[in-house]
Specification:
Blueprint lengths: L3 H12 L5 H7 L11 E4 L3 H5 L3 H12 L5 E7 L2 E6 L1 H15 L13 E5 L14 H16 L3 E5 L7 H13 L2 H6 L1 H18 L2 H14 L3 H25 L16 H10 L3 E4 L2 E4 L9 E4 L7 H16 L3 E5 L5 H13 L8 E4 L4 E3 L14 H17 L8 H19 L6 E3 L1 H4 L7 H18 L1 H7 L13 H22 L4 H20 L7 H25 L8
Parallel strand pairs: 4-5, 4-9, 9-10, 11-12
Antiparallel strand pairs: 1-3, 2-3, 6-7, 7-8
Helix pairs in contact: 1-2, 5-20, 5-22, 6-20, 7-9, 7-10, 10-11, 13-14, 15-16, 18-21, 18-22, 19-22, 20-21, 20-22, 21-22
This protein binds arginine.
Length: about 575
């Protein structure tokens, strides 16, 4: 696809000797409304250079460029020169690019296969996979797809929270009040109830906390019985997590979680010691970070047990050695900002120049309409229940529409799951937000079902067009885009044409919602086009041009949804 802005800059550079193409590019604006042109060039800053009033410069420039065949029209308005591109040419360029590339439209070759780790989801075993975990899971999944699309070699890691003192608590509670059958039948809910019970009892009898610590220490030392119970909890939990991952269609390359690093930590602790980073404080080993305005990082407790942060430092070094990552991305809640700042600093202090290749991608909290969640109190909403309920509700809604019986299950799944994922990815990730059923399942608002429905609408138009649409998509017919240059079609094709840049921006900013917002815009523009114009008109040339608009839209929405981890059903 042509880079319109770049072409404009080069034409302008030819007309303005005193400015480089780069400087000119920095000045070019995109008017909010195409009625004012596709691009605007303000001349205020040129006044000094040319010692002339900006209005005059603009007027002269407009006159000079008026005859240029690159533009349909060049207009001078006050101190601006407004450029109108040749609509048919722009549209033809976009359509050709999308239809030629198909599923690859939006992909780029900027990564050069450099390894990028995306660590995401990382739930704690024996604890519920609740609605709070969905953010890391879907943001991370989408980022991994975006990075892959940008040409990186992506490694998806689930850093399971399968180690730490809480397992001491869980084992103590299981021994005191638990039984095997319950755990087998409903592992996570049962284990959670033990955890809740432990905290209730520990409020009354604080010695339970010591017992839990001692039990975890035994686990770390590899005591057979503790290790066996822990392994079993882990397996049962993973089974349950995998229902959620299956529903979401998410896979990982590695489940190396916290426990994976248990035998690798001593060497790293020793290395920190050798490098003079450790200090003793009340029997524990810490890294003093006061020079960096941060509280000290506790690396090893008095009883010799390690901590969450020790495992993160060890994991990062392991990953560098194993994958030689170009980026090591952590999709983890903003509550852990300090934790990541602390240990990124420690990696740097250890002398690793790759510290700045580690990136924390934080996100805000999800709350429920009726208040916040608390794992300790057992007040949680299970993600699996939310997903299932969404599929069920969607099924009721679409059963009334004209989805064929045999497609009902699959469509309900695609739309129900897509609705939840889409809502997660529609807001800037850093914002806190409240989960709402009404918002999730709306077919009209800025929701997943709305965008999927728009995609299905495009697919239906193409189906109705039959062989003609197939030939067009296969490149056997070249559309004459001058037959459809109305504002709606033009705006729509410009938005479709921006899609590859949008994907790059989303990757740069680690922000999938940039893709989400853009495909909402495309869907809205298509629906405007659909309402303004009749697509399957008598005139063959016009019909084909409109089908080309429709096909390019369909492909782009589909590719956009795929980057979010959402299916694009053909019928709804
Ligand atoms: N298991 C942790 C939790 O649920 C998240 C782990 C984040 N990843 C990391 N490398 N620290 O809070």
């Amino acid at each position: 696809m042509k880079d319109q802005k770049k072409e404009l800059a080069s034409v302008l550079a030819g007309a303005l000797d005193n400015l480089t193409e780069e400087e000119i590019t920095g000045l070019i604006e995109t008017p909010p409304d195409s009625a004012m042109g596709d691009f605007a060039f303000p001349c205020f800053k040129l006044a000094k250079i040319f010692r002339k009033a900006p209005q005059m410069i603009a007027q002269e420039l407009a006159e000079k460029l008026s005859g240029n065949s690159a533009f349909a029209e060049v207009k001078n308005v006050n101190a601006y020169v407004n450029f109108f591109m040749n609509r048919a040419e722009v549209e033809a360029d976009v359509v050709k690019s999308v239809l030629d590339k198909g599923e690859d439209y939006g992909k780029a070759d900027i990564g050069g296969n450099k390894p990028v780790i995306v660590e995401f989801s990382s739930p704690n075993i024996a604890k519920p996979f609740h609605i709070g975990h969905i953010r890391s899971t879907v943001i991370g999944n989408s980022l991994s797809k975006i990075y892959k699309a940008l040409g990186y070699d992506v490694i998806r890691i689930n850093h399971l929270g399968d180690y730490g003192t809480q397992f001491g608590k869980m084992i103590v509670a299981y021994r005191k009040w638990g039984n095997e059958e319950d755990v087998k039948r409903e592992p996570i809910k049962t284990l959670l109830s033990y955890y809740v019970k432990f905290h209730e009892e520990a409020d009354k009898d604080p010695s339970l906390e010591d017992e839990a610590r001692a039990t975890f220490a035994k686990l770390e030392q590899g005591e057979k019985e503790e290790v066996e119970i822990w392994k079993w909890f882990r397996e049962e939990s993973l089974k349950e997590f995998s229902y959620v991952y299956d529903l979401l269609g998410i896979e990982f390359d590695s489940y190396a979680g916290e426990s994976f690093y248990s035998d690798k930590m001593p060497a790293v602790v020793k290395e920190m010691e050798d490098k003079g980073l450790l200090q003793e404080s009340e029997g524990a080993q810490i890294v003093d970070l006061s020079d960096y305005d941060m509280p000290p990082a506790l690396i090893k407790k008095k009883d010799g047990s390690t901590l969450y942060i020790t495992r993160d430092i060890t994991a990062a070094i392991y990953r560098k050695n194993t994958y030689n990552f170009y980026r090591n991305i952590y999709v983890v809640a903003s509550q852990q900002n300090l934790h990541f700042k602390q240990w990124f600093k420690i990696i740097e202090l250890m002398g690793y120049d790759w510290a700045d290749q580690c990136v924390h991608v934080p996100f805000g909290m999800v709350s429920l309409e009726d208040g916040t969640m608390s794992t300790r109190k057992g007040k949680v909403v299970f993600l699996l229940d939310v997903l299932n309920k969404s599929v069920e509700k969607t099924r009721e809604i679409i059963a009334e529409k004209n989805v064929p019986e045999e497609l009902l299950d699959q469509t309900a799944h695609d739309v129900g799951i897509g609705a939840v994922v889409f809502q997660e990815l529609s807001n800037n990730r850093i914002k806190d937000y409240t989960f709402s059923w009404d918002k999730v399942l709306n077919f009209d608002g800025e929701t997943g079902p709305y965008v999927q429905y728009t995609h299905a609408r495009c697919a239906s138009v193409l189906r109705n067009a039959g062989a003609e649409a197939d030939d067009l998509i296969a490149g056997k017919i070249t559309p004459d885009m001058s037959k459809v240059t109305g504002d709606a079609a033009y705006e729509l094709m410009k938005a479709v044409g921006r899609f590859p840049d949008v994907v790059i921006e989303a990757g740069d900013k680690y922000e999938p919602s940039i893709v989400t917002r853009h495909i909402i815009d495309i869907a809205e523009l298509f629906n405007k086009f659909y309402h303004d114009e009749h697509i399957l008109v008598e005139d063959r040339e016009e019909r084909i041009a409109k089908l080309a608009v429709t096909a390019a839209t369909e492909q782009t929405i589909k590719n956009g949804l795929a980057l979010l981890g959402i299916a694009a059903p053909d019928r709804m």
